[in-house]
Amino acid sequence: MSQLASKPPTQKNPSVRMPKLRAAARGAECMMQVPGVCNHDTTTTVLAHSNEGDAGRGTGYKGHDWLGVNMCSDCHDFYDGRSLIHDAQGIRSMYFDEAWRLQVRWWLEQGLLS
User: Fold this and answer.
1) Low pLDDT (below 50) residues in the chain
2) Fewest Cβ atoms closer than 10 Å to its Cβ: which of 35, 48, 56, 92?
């Protein structure tokens, strides 16, 4: 029997949930604001989870809440690939990274992270 066959299956750690961050996203400004995509409608804003590989996500798991970004419905659709706008230049990750920096500063300013 090979060593691989004798190893137990690796369990994925559950994602970290932070209800205060999710609640604060509702009605907040979109942090992505992708030009030509963002609808700037705060009534559609939710905490969108990262799709980046190191965000704790995987099959059946969303990423950690603290690696999420407040996004309007159109930016969220664009980021998740549900938009008709093609990401030929790979800008989704670039916009997400910049938005996450703004997001963390906003959480700190709101007293949601310390």
Assistant:
1) 1, 10, 56
2) 35
Determine the pLDDT at residue 56: 46
Domain segments of the chain as ranges = 15-109
Domain 15-109 belongs to what topology?
Erythroid Transcription Factor GATA-1; Chain A (3.30.50)
The 10 Å CB-count burial string (b at 16+, else e) for 35-68 is eebbeeeeebbbbbbbeeeebbbeeeebbbbbbb
Report residue 59 as tokens.
Answer: 């099959």
CA 32 to chain centre: 10
The pTM assigned to this predicted structure is 0.79
Structure tokens at 114: 């310390």
Run of H or E including 71:
strand 69-71
Residues with a catalytic annotation lie at 49
DSSP state letter for 45: -
The three-state secondary structure class of 58 is strand
